[in-house]
Amino acid sequence: MEVLITADRIHARVEELATEIARTYDGKPVTVVGILTGCLMFTADLIRRINLPLRVAFITASSYRGETLVPGLLEIRDELLPDIAGKHILLLDDILDTGKTLTRVVAHLIDRGAASVKVGVLLRKIGRQEVPFEPDFVGFTIPDKFVVGYGLDFNDEYRHLPFVGVLLGGE
């Protein structure tokens, strides 16, 4: 496996993102909604550094299943989501790939009555986006390679790695 982004670079960038987010919301309470399972590491590290009143919730939105590198049908499950009507939402995801997942989840949160939805992603993959979507906060821009680590997986493995790496053979 080739290390693409080291643990030290990730932690430094997460600190910068926390400052940007706090500045953007200017003291307003925020409900952070993480898209499981890939967001877990990013969300945990980021929320500990954001100096704002926060609520934390999670949803699942997945189009990858098993040993595939190709997305399938998107399934959104929001049973763990509290009432978000009138709340400012910061949606966090591990990666912006095609843009389809984030576009659908943002629409879902707006349909549930969110006052506003801003999006933060750890990674933005170049060359894969199929729908127009601009996240508000981006950790890193990466090439079109299949990556794992720091929450990202292949067949539910590699999430625990403290860095982001390119899975060899998955390019």
Quick overview:
It comes from Gemmata palustris. Helices cover 23% and strands 31% of the residues. The chain has helices at residues 7-25, 40-47, 100-111; strands at 2-5, 30-36, 54-62, 75-77, 88-96, 116-125, 137-142, 147-148, 164-166.
Range of strand content: 25-35%
Quick one: how many beta strands? 9
Shape: globular
Strand order of the largest sheet: 4-3-2-5-6-7
Furnish the topology, listing elements before pairings.
Elements lengths: L1 E4 L1 H19 L4 E7 L3 H8 L6 E9 L12 E3 L10 E9 L3 H12 L4 E10 L11 E6 L4 E2 L15 E3 L5
Parallel strand pairs: 2-3, 2-5, 5-6, 6-7
Antiparallel strand pairs: 1-9, 3-4, 8-9
Helix pairs in contact: 1-2
Written account of the structure:
- The protein has 171 residues and is an alpha/beta fold.
- It has a single domain, classed as Rossmann fold, CATH 3.40.50.
- It is 23% helix and 31% strand.
- The chain contains three helices and nine strands.
- The strands form two sheets. It has a six-stranded mixed beta sheet with strand order 4-3-2-5-6-7, sandwiched between helices. It has a three-stranded antiparallel beta sheet with strand order 1-9-8.
- Helix 2 links the parallel strand 2 and strand 3.
- The radius of gyration is 15 Å and the shape is globular.
- It starts with a strand and ends in a 5-residue tail after the last strand.
- 29% of the residues are buried.
Entry keywords:
single chain; Rossmann fold; purine salvage; three-stranded antiparallel β-sheet; PRTase_dom; six-stranded mixed β-sheet; 171 residues; Hxn_phspho_trans; alpha/beta; EC 2.4.2.8; cytoplasm; 3 helices
